Amino acid sequence: MSGWSYAPTNRAGCKGQCKQKIEKGAVRFGTEVDIGGHTNISYRNLKCVTAKQFANMNEKFGDLKSVPGFADLKEEDQKRVLEQASVASKAEEDAEAARQAEKDAKQAEKDAKVEAKARAKAEKAEAKAKAAAEKAKAKEEKAKAKAAADGPATKRAKTA
Q: What are the phi and psi torsion angles at 117 (to 5°)?
């Protein structure tokens, strides 16, 4: 059974993000886990309870006020629990927005690389075509020059 409680000692460690000892008297959330027939309770500091866990509590118990131990908390601690649900939800939204922004940035970087590669390929093809045109023009001019130089001599040879 999961539930809210006050830490009777400062021996339990938080299984959430902070991984620190839970101070005596601090609000904590405990989750029971069966491992090999033994029941183990993992605790989290209030600030380390995630949006997903709050959503699971709402799904399982109907609302946060129905979670075991909530009614035993002081009124100000009950308010803190409800506020933390909003904070955790906002943090999850911010994290999702950050992940999406990172994903978008990576996609934009990838698109820019593809575009740069295509542009470089087009420039290379254009330069190659220009070089081929210049080579053809030079060859044509050389042929004209040769024809001009050979032209009168060829006419003289034919008339003779």
A: -65, -45
The b/e string for 121-157 (b: 16+ C-beta within 10 A; e otherwise) is eeeeeeeeeeeeeeeeeeeeeeeeeeeeeeeeeeeee
* pTM (global) more than 0.70: no
Alpha carbon distance 58, 55 (integer Å):
5
Question: Mind listing the pLDDT tens digit for each residue in 64-119?
Answer: 999 999 999 999 999 999 999 888 888 788 788 888 888 988 988 998 898 988 88
Tokens linked to 80: 């803190």
Q: In angstroms, rounded to a whole number, what is the distance separating the alpha carbons of residues 73 and 93?
A: 28
30-58 pLDDT, tens per residue?
Answer: 999 888 889 899 999 999 999 999 999 99
Residue 140: C-alpha distances to residues 68, 90, 133, 137 (Å):
94, 74, 10, 5
